[in-house]
Design goal:
The structure holds two protein chains of two kinds. Chain A is mainly β. Chain A has no helices and ten strands. Chain A has a six-stranded mixed beta sheet with strand order 2-10-9-4-5-6, with no helix packed on it. Chain A has a four-stranded antiparallel beta sheet with strand order 1-3-8-7, with no helix packed on it. The radius of gyration of chain A is 13 Å and the shape is globular. By secondary structure, chain B is mainly beta. Helix content of chain B is 0%, strand content 49%. In chain B, strands 2, 4, 5, 6, 9, 10 and 11 form a seven-stranded mixed beta sheet that branches. In chain B, strands 1-3-8-7 form a four-stranded antiparallel beta sheet, with no helix packed on it. In chain B, strand 4 and strand 5 form a beta hairpin. At the A-B interface, strand 4 and strand 5 of A face strand 5 and strand 10 of B.
């Protein structure tokens, strides 16, 4: 199975901050990498697909980059509603593994 | 409006089976792959498999091979996930999630519509 490792596992930040979360795959996954946001008690929400494509309806402060094995999710200016847990997922091969998650909370 | 409606919470004894349903609304079930993902309490997301509702093709995570079955009934726009030989480790919220792109593109571009989740408790 392809292992997905996110860093950091947790992050404290303030509204208005710029933050980045990284995701590393144990082997190349081309750009079959997607980012999700999950708030407590809710289903995940697709933010970025294919490494860098912004899902319809998602604010432009979210962006994704990378290819191969190293990927980054960046939030340019944190808003109060952004504090949640973020997951990366690869769909290059099955099982379509997720990273362990990054918990973003308010400093 | 596109959405997925899942069946209600279930409680099962160890060794039993559970079948979760996922009704598609606002689009044609056959037009998009359907994934199933679960989340144990306080844990991360775990991909379980997908079904191609157009032809019934399936792909399961090897972890669940032999005790998971995904099916669909296109006449009522509903996908199903059945898990057998339950243990306490199967206690989780189970989500269905639609693949982002139409079935001809494959299940590779993320999951854009999610059900509300079904809590399964094994005790």
């Amino acid at each position: 199975d392809i292992q997905m490792t996110q860093s950091p596992s947790s992050l404290s930040a303030s509204a208005g901050d710029r933050v980045s979360i990284t995701c590393r795959a144990s082997q190349t996954i081309n750009n079959y990498l997607h980012w999700y946001q999950q708030s407590p008690g809710k289903a995940p929400k697709l933010l970025i697909y294919s490494a860098s494509r912004l899902q319809s309806g998602v604010p432009s402060r979210f962006s994704g980059s990378g290819s191969g094995t190293n990927f980054t999710l960046t939030i340019s200016s944190l808003q109060p509603e952004d504090f949640a847990t973020f997951y990366c997922q690869q769909t290059y091969d099955t099982p379509h593994t997720f990273g362990q998650g990054t918990n973003l909370d308010i400093k | 409006q596109v959405h997925l409606v899942q069946s209600g919470a279930e409680v099962r004894k160890p060794g039993a089976s559970v079948k979760v349903s996922c009704e598609a609304a606002g689009y044609t079930l056959s037009d998009y792959y359907m994934h199933w993902v679960r989340q144990a309490p306080g844990q991360g997301l775990e991909w379980m498999g997908w079904i191609n509702p157009n032809n019934g093709g399936i792909k399961y995570s090897q972890k669940f091979q032999g005790r998971i079955t995904m099916t669909r009934d296109t006449s009522i726009s509903t996908a199903y996930m059945e898990l057998s030989s339950l243990t306490s480790d199967d206690t989780a919220v189970y989500f269905c999630a639609r693949a982002r792109d139409i079935v001809a593109s494959g299940p590779f571009y993320g999951m854009d519509v999610w059900g509300q989740g079904t809590t399964v408790t094994v005790s």
